[in-house]
Each structure stands twice: as C-alpha cells, then as structure tokens.
C-alpha cells in the first residue's frame, strides 16, 4: 500500500482527552458521571488510538476553511504558524479513527487508485452481501436449535427494512465480520475489558496503557441531522445507532453479553469531526495496573462464549473463513455455500435483484444445511 507523502501543512484533530492516573480512577469517574448526568452513554475500549491522513471531502478538494473545522479549539496545526484557508491536499487532514481496520475507500485513497467498475459495483453491493450472509447464519442457528422464539425474532428483522435489517449485519460485526460498522457497548465494564485485555488470549495487559472512548447518543443524533443537511449528502447520509440488546441469547450470546451496539457512519471524516468538536466524543487514557480494577471484573469466557454455547459463533467459524473483497470472490462464496443443487443459480449482479431472489431460495438453503448440522448441536445446552 502506498504511504501518503508528507505534506507541508497539516490540520490535526484532537479528540478532547483526559488522562487518569489509574484504571480504577477512570472507572470511578465513568460510573459517577453516568449516575450524575442520568444520560445514557456508549463506550468503546481500545489498546491504542488509530489515526488517518484523509481528505475532508471527495475531490476535487476545496481549500480548508474555519467552517470545515466547526470549532477551532479542537485543532492544532503543523507548523503552528499555519493560517486558514489552506489547500486541502491528500494528507492535509490528520484525523483520529475509532474503526481500526481500513475501509475500502481509505485503502484506495492511500494508494491513489480510482475504483474500476467492478470495485464500484462491489462497494454498492457489499452491504447487501454482508447482510444476507449474516441472515443466513442467524436463521440457520434458529433452525438447528429449533428455537421458535428466536426464529420469530429473526423473521421480524429479515422482513423489515433499515434499521432492523442492519441489526443482522451488526451481529456479524460482533462475530468478526469486517462490515465497516463501529462496535460499541453500553457497559463500562465491557469497554474496560477490551481496553486492557488481549482479545485472543484473554490475558490482562498489566503495566501498559489503555484508551476508552465515550460517545453521547444525544449529540450523535444532532450530528446526524447536521450531516443530512449538508448539500454534498443530499439528505442521504446516516449515522445510526443499533442496539443489539434484544438479540436472542440462545443463538448469539456474545452480542448480548457484551451489551453490544453498532454505529453506522463512523468511517466518514465529517462525522468524527462533528462529534469531537461538539463534545459528543471524549477520549480517556490511563495506565493499566498489576491487575484489573474491581469494575473490570469480566472474563473472556463470559464475553466470548465457547462455540458449544454459541451457535452463531460455530456457524461463522464454519462458513466465514475469509472475507470476500470483490464481486468475483463474493460469487465464489455464493457458489460454494448456496448454489448447491440449485436448478437456477444465484448470480450476484449490480442491480441487486439477486438479493430479492435470495428470499425465495432461503428456505431451501436452510433445509439443505439444518438437518446435517443439527447433530453437531445436539449436546449444546439451551
């Protein structure tokens, strides 16, 4: 991947940050703040901050002005004598990114590649593809477990439009699917765990550092309206919050135990700028101690249940071995897992008609797998 060359002048956005002397001090502050304000917050724990050099808008770029910064107090300039307006060249904007993985748009920006027709078509289709894969896995878990209540819940999501349909994709995000959504939680304890533990091993990262972000839903709703009113979005931009709290724990306990939420739109630079400059996004840094504090009492075994206790995890590990990155790879996935014994082949297309047709094939695909896989789940406790 091509690295952006150094630019002469750079505007650097700083999320309002508070440093704490210990993990326990931060935990006490977050708990007391939530209780005193009475307002719900969302949190995200990370071991470090990610940053990106990204243009504010798609090219051609106009000069960066005070209006773009929203609140100049949240910015610093290199060199410090820089005056607005400045040319908005690639790399001029240095922004924090809460999403640790690179989005396809950002990857192309870094490499200076203009997407071809196939890449553009996949970008348009990938949300539908991700959603349909998640729907398949969740519906299959319901069928294998013969869980009528979970099946009813799934039907309510699958037969709806956004935002309910987004909930299925959000569950996939919590099981390792790279969907471009931002994971968050309503639990301070969960956020602290992710900020201080190694996800793969569950080991506590003693005497290191952690980062917790706090997001104010009320400010996010205002930011969404502000973005929708921008002429460049023509009212189409969305910055939704998706609560996974009603997900059936019998089939997807990870999303429930992590008190998971997914946030839509956080790959967009303007949303990050608006939230940081309006006080809706705060960053807290702290050192970890020799052992977790009392609030940070959760374990990996609880937050990431064993596959025998988590049907959706088992199925994701079975069907989602690697993530398709093109229309061709998506079609290969469909051929391998869905076009089995079909009289008529499901063919992904640019129009999206394949997504509608999938609905009519869903029952047959589920029947194909549910009987053979049910034996694997016989011993799974309810």
Widest sheet: strand ordering: 4-6-1-5
**For the report, how would you describe the main beta sheet?**
4 strands, mixed
Number of helices: 14
Give me the Rg, rounded: 22 Å
Instruction: Report the mean per-residue pLDDT as an integer.
Output: 85
Q: Which percent range describes the beta-strand content?
A: 5-15%
Tell me roughly what share of residues is in helical segments.
40-55%
Structural class comes to alpha+beta
Alpha-carbon distance between the two ends: 46 Å
Tally of strands:
11
Order of helix and strand elements from N to C terminus: EEHEEHEEHHHHEHEHEHEHEHHHH
- Give the overall shape, derived from the CA principal axes: globular
Outline the low-pLDDT stretches: 1-5
Can you give keywords for this protein?
single chain, 382 residues, alpha+beta, four-stranded mixed beta sheet, 14 helices, 42% helix, 13% strand, disordered N terminus
Q: What does this entry look like structurally?
A:
Strands 4-6-1-5 form a four-stranded mixed beta sheet, with helices on one face. It contains 14 helices and eleven strands. By secondary structure, it is of the alpha+beta class. The longest helix has 29 residues, at 117-145. It has helices at 23-37, 66-69, 104-111, 117-145, 148-158, 164-174, 188-196, 217-228, 253-257, 269-277, 300-303, 311-319, 327-337, 353-374; strands at 10-13, 17-19, 42-46, 50-53, 75-78, 93-97, 182-185, 209-215, 241-243, 260-263, 281-287. It has one domain (17-49, 114-377).
